[in-house]
Amino acid sequence: MNQPGDRLLEGSAAVVTGASGGLGRSIAAALAAHGAGVVIAARREDAGAKAVRAITDAGGRALFVRCDVTRRTDVEAAVAAAVDAYGGLDIMVHNANSAIANEPHRLEDVVVEEWDDVVRVASLGAFHCAQAAHTQLRRREGRFIVLTSAAGMEGSAYLPAYSAAKASQRAFVKSLAREWGSAGITVNALSPVAETPSLSAYLQKNPEVRRRLAGRAALGRVGDPDRDVAQAAVFLASGMARFITGQTLVVDGGAFMGL
Amino acid sequence: MTADDRAAGRTAICTLPTGPIGEGIARGLAQRGWQLGLVGMGEAPEALAASLRAEGATATAVGCELDTRAAVADAFTEATAALGPPRLVVHGFPLYPPRLPRPLLDINEAGWAMACGSPLRAALLTFQAAFDAFAAGGSGGRIVAVVPTFALSGAASFTLQASAAEGIRALVKSAARQWGADAITVNCLAVDGEALLDQHVAGAEVSLAVPALVAGDPADDLAPAVDWLASHDAHFVTGQTLVLDGGTWMAR
């Protein structure tokens, strides 16, 4: 029986979108540390190669596939790479975000092209990931994990487009969990707050935001992507979570408790 | 209706006022003394406006695809020219035909755009047009977005529509946070998802829950709640979802 601390994903295969940096990279590294072969599916080739090297240097298995999740063929190529290299696919993690999603904006000023970009990376990306991965996932009673945000649950005074896109992920997860349960596939959402390098740079410049973010969390700090958050993705991907589906796991140190 | 409500006027713009729910809310608002601008695609808004006028209401239809900011702004300008500045904007939920359950694997990218991308964009553009219209009026306003309850519950084979609906619900919350200072409240009305479907598939297994109440006429079941959200009495309610499905979904 699996227990925390074991290598939980020995011999399995994963695709993580948006894994060339930030939380996606941490999740990919954590899956690899638990024995999964990982496809780093991302747009940035240089950063993707670095993420691969960090995993292989630590003894893990990883490869990079250039992937824009709004392009169906790119996502299919990422899944095909997992099948070629690792013999199948057990875990699909859709983490990619639009580059402009985290720029604070006023709703009345949002231009529709930017809105569409945020929605397409999140929602169309999830759609492509689901369709591209389904055949493989159903062979292995696989896991589909989608990153969401408390902004999608409580709205955001700073990031309305991001909040709408992230909310749409949760209903997607619930609906698809109902639809694919009979195929043995679980579909869940992960709602983190993690101090990724980009958030860290922002918080350095805006210490009052750090105080506010940390102050909201019961544990009194912003999470570390590797130590605090990525392990939750490992859990959802593992056999320990085999009877959990359609749920949102909030991993933010006890900031959002509205579920 | 309070003196504040009378002063604020009784003009409402209903976007995408189609199907039994959208038409019922519009009819109920008309019965409650609202004069209506009906903004939407195809022939439906004009047919509804004509039917409401025949019942003695003031209603004007404006055709609009709700796909660009300029198009929605023009539609709101036309409705406002005919009826005066709106106090209330009711945004309907577009379930594109065929309104049938459809497994995700059977949908192509154009289907994604129709079921998810377009509804989200239409909500953004409607909210922006409402903001501009309220700003021009100078005394704030009320936005009510109608979504199916499967935004909250999820529904097999309605995955993309549920995604769009829940995205709209978050948009409501974010808009409420940003526009509270402008005296604009933004709320959601969650209605029975099955009621939005085509008649012949009503009863599709969207939810296993049994409603506590029997649904009647949307004009009677739903419009009073919209009327209340638009009233002065509801001025402190924003970012919320009122679930009006007769007590089916209670797990929020």
Describe what is shown at a glance.
The complex is a heterodimer of chains A (259) and B (252). Chain A has 259 residues and is of the alpha/beta class. Chain A is built from nine helices and seven strands; from the N terminus they run βαβαβαβαβααβαααβ.
Tell me, rounded to a whole number, the average pLDDT of chain B: 91
Strand order of the largest sheet of chain B: 3-2-1-4-5-6-7
Tell me about the largest β-sheet of chain B: 7 strands, parallel
* Structural classification of chain B: alpha/beta
Largest sheet of chain A: 7 strands, parallel
The computed structural class of chain A is alpha/beta
Largest interface summary: A-B, 46 and 48 residues
Number of DSSP E strands of chain B: 7
Helix content of chain B: 40-55%
Strand content of chain B: 15-25%
Please, how many helices of chain B? Answer: 9
Q: Overall 3D geometry of chain B?
A: globular
Question: Portion of residues in helices of chain A?
Answer: 40-55%
**Helix and strand pattern of chain B:** HEHEHEHEHEHHEHHE
**Would you report the number of β strands of chain A?**
7
Low-confidence stretches of chain A: none
Would you tell me the overall average pLDDT of chain A?
95
Q: Helical stretch count of chain A? A: 9
Description:
The complex is a heterodimer of chains A (259) and B (252). Chain A is an alpha/beta fold and 259 residues long. Chain A has helices at residues 22-33, 45-57, 72-86, 112-139, 151-154, 160-180, 197-205, 207-216, 225-237; strands at 13-17, 37-42, 61-66, 91-94, 143-147, 186-192, 248-251. In chain A, strand 1 (13-17), helix 1 (22-33) and strand 2 (37-42) form a beta-alpha-beta unit. The longest helix of chain A has 28 residues, at 112-139. The mean pLDDT of chain A is 95. With 252 residues, chain B is α/β, with parallel strands linked by helices. Chain B has helices at residues 3-8, 19-31, 44-54, 69-83, 109-137, 150-153, 159-179, 218-221, 223-229; strands at residues 11-15, 35-40, 59-63, 88-91, 141-148, 184-191, 241-244. A 7-stranded parallel beta sheet of chain B has the order 3-2-1-4-5-6-7, with helices on both faces. In chain B, helix 2 (19-31) links the parallel strand 1 (11-15) and strand 2. At the A-B interface, helix 4, helix 5 and helix 6 of A face helix 5, helix 6 and helix 7 of B.
